[in-house]
């Protein structure tokens, strides 16, 4: 029997280590003979590549245009990749989802309401929403330190002031969605990568009855 809790999203600031945790989680499922599809948004598909290039300033785009572009990516990626994986019994672990759309393009209350409307194709019905959203809460200062130490290319969203704003927006949108989404915040103070992964697994295993 396929377990009902199978769709997980990992969110976090750039530099929070979420991509490493997605990889580790996917490997854990596979090592335990549980079929797993790991993916990311923006994806490596055509719309995703266009959206990703915009974040690195490849072409000028208005914030409203980016909101629509990322919403289109969420929709296409869900129906083309995520839904088929779930339908064939796989666990799915996705690096970012529509929550990031609110954080990176939600500049004011009016914009946030429009982003809600743009993402209705994947937010409703509720069955299309993730079973759990894991937010790796790393301080903006630590994220900025990691980014500057490890990357030669930095996106338009990666400055300390922007990271601070993004964290506030993540917490704000999670507060708004807490009645409809299963949001798990992982505190990471004084934790290395292994300790963060252990915290994530302590939350995921009971959900999956593994």
Textual characterization of the structure:
This protein is of the alpha/beta class. The protein has a single domain (7-208), classed as P-loop containing nucleotide triphosphate hydrolases (Rossmann fold, 3-Layer(aba) Sandwich), CATH 3.40.50. Helix content is 55%, strand content 13%. It has helices spanning 18-31, 46-55, 63-87, 98-105, 109-118, 120-123, 140-150, 160-177, 193-208; strands spanning 7-12, 36-40, 91-95, 132-137, 183-187. It has a five-stranded parallel beta sheet with strand order 2-3-1-4-5, sandwiched between helices. The chain is globular and about 45 Å long. The model has no long low-confidence stretch (mean pLDDT 92).
What are the SSEs and their pairings?
Layout: E1 7-12, H1 18-31, E2 36-40, H2 46-55, H3 63-87, E3 91-95, H4 98-105, H5 109-118, H6 120-123, E4 132-137, H7 140-150, H8 160-177, E5 183-187, H9 193-208
Parallel strand pairs: 1-3, 1-4, 2-3, 4-5
One letter per element, helices H and strands E, the order comes to EHEHHEHHHEHHEH
User: Helix coverage percent of residues?
Assistant: 55-70%
Low-confidence stretches: none
| Count of runs of 4 or more consecutive helical residues | 9
Structural class call reads alpha/beta
The number of strands is: 5
The shape, in one word, is globular
Number of structurally distinct domains: 1
Q: How much beta, percentage-wise? A: 5-15%
Please tell me the overall pLDDT.
92
Question: Given this structure, which CATH class is correct?
Answer: Alpha Beta
Across the major sheet, the strand order is 2-3-1-4-5
What kind of sheet is the major sheet?
A: 5 strands, parallel
Q: Termini separation (Å)?
A: 13 Å
